[in-house]
Specification:
The chain has about 280 residues and is α/β, with parallel strands linked by helices. Helix content is about 45%, strand content about 20%. The chain has two domains: about 1-30; about 60-235, no CATH class.
């Protein structure tokens, strides 16, 4: 009486669903999740399943969730004046290179321990971190350096050198980026050039990040580019790129009925859990 349009086929499907639930790891818990949905919610769920496989939807949501947690954790640490926080920030930026632009999105940019060693020797023992614990970063009293690179390939698809080097220097919370900091960044780049581990075609990009930027003009010296950025600006870029990713997903799946305002509301209501750094520990 409550389901006047149900058919024999629907009943058979229901039994089949119960059979699969019986075999699943979560059992009948999905029923408890479905029972609280409104008819409109069920229509929306059906629309999602028409456009997405469950695995696709899960991957997208996990990526968005990861990025939001990453941004939240960086926000909580970047302006902290404690030098120890620099140890925690570099691994976060290593997993969030996409913040700096689409070209750093892929896995081709990875931490280059060999070039980090070159910079380490540049300071002649002036760093404060234990190299056995974090050999991929150079941590100084007032800043930390992460060095990343991407390979260059020849016409046969073989690695033939380093295409680009990315240096990220994080100044401690409350710091101001001045002209001397950019000059120092170019010194790091010169040291890498002089070490003989890269060729004449390799570009070097240096980002110097701090709480405030007093000297705003980037340095362009040949193939070296030193760029000052405030943490607040980087975080705004991170938020923008996250929402741009959502727009790309909508376009890719031809989803035109999703409103940005609704998406933002859902994200705002999601609980940000404590971010775990174990994946980036060496």
């Amino acid at each position: 009486m409550r389901c006047p349009t149900i058919t024999q086929r629907d009943l058979s499907n229901t039994v089949e669903i119960f059979t699969k639930m019986e075999l699943s790891r979560t059992g009948y818990s999905l029923l408890q999740q479905l029972i609280i949905l409104s008819p409109d919610d069920l229509d929306s769920l059906s629309d999602i399943l028409d456009n997405w496989s469950l695995n696709d939807a899960k991957k997208v949501l996990e990526e968005l969730d990861w990025r939001l947690k990453l941004i939240k954790k960086i926000e909580s640490l970047c302006d902290d004046p404690k030098a120890d926080e620099l140890h925690k920030l570099q691994p976060l930026f290593e997993t969030g290179l996409w913040i700096f632009g689409p070209e750093y999105e892929g896995i081709q940019f990875t931490s280059n321990k060999s070039l980090s060693t070159v910079i380490d020797k540049f300071f002649k023992g002036g760093k404060v971190s234990d190299p056995r614990k974090r050999p991929d970063f150079v941590v100084l009293p007032e800043s930390s350096l992460g060095i990343y690179s991407s390979d260059r390939y020849d016409e046969n698809g073989e690695v033939c050198g380093i295409n680009k080097v990315l240096i990220i220097e994080l100044k401690r919370g409350g710091s101001k980026i001045i002209k001397q900091h950019l000059i120092q960044a170019t010194d790091y780049a010169d040291e890498i050039i002089n070490c003989g581990k890269i060729d004449a075609e390799t570009k070097i990009i240096c980002y110097v990040l701090g709480s405030k930027v007093e000297y705003r003009d980037p340095f362009n010296i040949g193939r070296i580019n030193a760029i000052p950025r405030a943490y607040s600006t980087i975080l705004r870029q991170a938020h923008a790129r996250t929402f741009n990713l959502m727009k790309k997903i909508e376009d890719y799946k031809n989803i035109s009925e999703i409103e940005d305002a609704e998406m933002r509301e859902i994200l705002a209501q999601s609980e940000i859990e404590e971010f775990c750094l174990s994946n980036s520990e060496t």
